[in-house]
Design brief:
single chain; Rossmann fold; 510 residues; GMP synthase [glutamine-hydrolyzing]; binds adenosine-5'-triphosphate; binds glutamine; 8-stranded mixed sheet; 25% strand; 5-stranded parallel sheet; 13 helices; binds magnesium ion; binds xanthosine-5'-monophosphate
Amino acid sequence: MPQQILILDFGSQYTQLIARRIRELNVYCEIHPFTHAPDLTEDIRGVVLSGSPCSVRDPEAPNPDLSRYLGKVPVLGVCYGAQLLASQNGGDVLPATIREYGRARLASIDQSNPLMRELTVDSQVWMSHGDTIKTLPAGFDIIASTPEVDVAAYHVQGQPTYGIQFHPEVTHSTEGKLLMRNFVVDICGCDQSWTPEHFVDSMVLALQHTIGPDDKVILGLSGGVDSSVAALLLHRAIGPRLHGIFVNNGLLRKDEFESVLHSYKDLGLNVRGVDASQEFYAALAGISDPEGKRKAIGRTFVEIFDQEAQKVAGARWLAQGTIYPDVIESVSVKGPAVTIKSHHNVGGLPEKMNLKIVEPLRALFKDEVRQVGDALELPHNILHRHPFPGPGLGIRILGDVTPHKVDLLQRADAIFIDGLREFGLYEQVWQAGVMLLPIQSVGVMGDERTYEQVVALRAVTSVDGMTADWAHLPYDFLAHVSNKIINQVRGINRVVYDISSKPPATIEWE
Ligand SMILES: Nc1ncnc2c1ncn2[C@@H]1O[C@H](COP(=O)(O)OP(=O)(O)OP(=O)(O)O)[C@@H](O)[C@H]1O
Ligand SMILES: O=c1[nH]c(=O)c2[nH+]cn([C@@H]3O[C@H](COP(=O)(O)O)[C@@H](O)[C@H]3O)c2[nH]1
Ligand SMILES: NC(=O)CC[C@H](N)C(=O)O
Ligand SMILES: [Mg+2]
């Protein structure tokens, strides 16, 4: 295991940002819910305690025993984490007279303290708290204040334990990254060696160690970034013992089955294309409910993987392209998050497959997956491909799915995506696609009345898909796409543009 920082999560909306800031310093870190705090191991060089929506004054609030870490490795409490350490040691945490959300400025700083080294007076910090530390326990020293908050940061005498009331992980804390560097590099002594290349080398070794010398691995490949990067890593580790399976679920983009299979062959990967369109259409027949469709698609995927695995003698592993946000969401502090959408690849692989799961990208964020793909020389067109959901056009056809609707949508979608490329807009957009709406509208074409379907164009900007803004595409581009769809795709007579952000909408419509 690489040296790492452990982040104990108390449910803050910013916990993932702490992880991102540490990884940007080329230091590996993991988030664990406070309810599953791991024991200290040699590779854990420091611990960060996250913020929380809870108040330490609430008897129900998280209050774990931290003695296994304190004084043994450096600990940094952020907001709730700082309040918790203060209150566990006899300090007073009280409701603040004014709740503080937003920007503040550091008025005094103890620059001789290693956490505060090189931070500047007047530096902007981001606050988000309703409680405040009124009195510190004996042996705790203030190392920074703002005009409103005396205890903006503290240090525990004689041990590398620190607390800060503000949020260094938020970019609005302009010197937050410097503070994190002071903690992670200077105080914890991490050597900043966690680079994409390092990840590739150590993951290939780990895969070789885990997967037995004669074992074969089945990997569902989609043409998307995650599964393609997983494929290259596994291929480097076990070569031809990797068996990729690319399923045509009848819900792919126009001509995608052929073109993706082709690009995998070019990469030297051992991939079988399985055309299961009819099985998917049969499973979807008559189902209009979004969750019903997702479940039917998920089930059919599993059936196909199961059938294919049985054809490969010695198949002992099922590899998945699972990435870090999937993992974090399923171990959230408040219990598994409410189901908004059932992702087709999560949950419910049947026992009888008898395959063990291997997930080489489990620890990475999407943009980190792209960096690893870059280090593995994944071709640009796959690396920068927009994400595409496994259930494909099945969740972009509102209402029931038929081969005829798939055909209409494939043609409209191809015009939109080709148009983005033509206008040089494809890589400015994080994801784009077309939705086929379950309504008809009246139009007039060549003096004749039409009564045909409506499609909605969807394009978003985002970093990781967790939040997204609708893309402000140029009007002349939208006009071009709208004209072309209405003129060329018989059966569609109206095009609208979706101007909803996530939240409160989501990227896909179902
Ligand atoms: N048509 C398919 N055939 C086989 N496996 C698939 C197919 N579609 C999806 N999968 C599997 O489901 C997983 C999740 O799909 P998902 O779309 O989240 O990831 P991806 O396709 O690898 O990347 P991206 O998010 O960039 O599209 C994939 O990693 C892959 O293992
Ligand atoms: O592989 C997948 N299986 C799914 O079931 C699924 N549902 C949504 N998505 C993709 O996830 C991102 C966020 O989508 P939403 O804002 O619609 O939840 C977007 O990139 C979506 O395309 C899926 N990907
Ligand atoms: N961001 C936080 O960690 C907030 C901690 C606590 N809930 C407060 O309001 O002070
Ligand atoms: Mg995909």
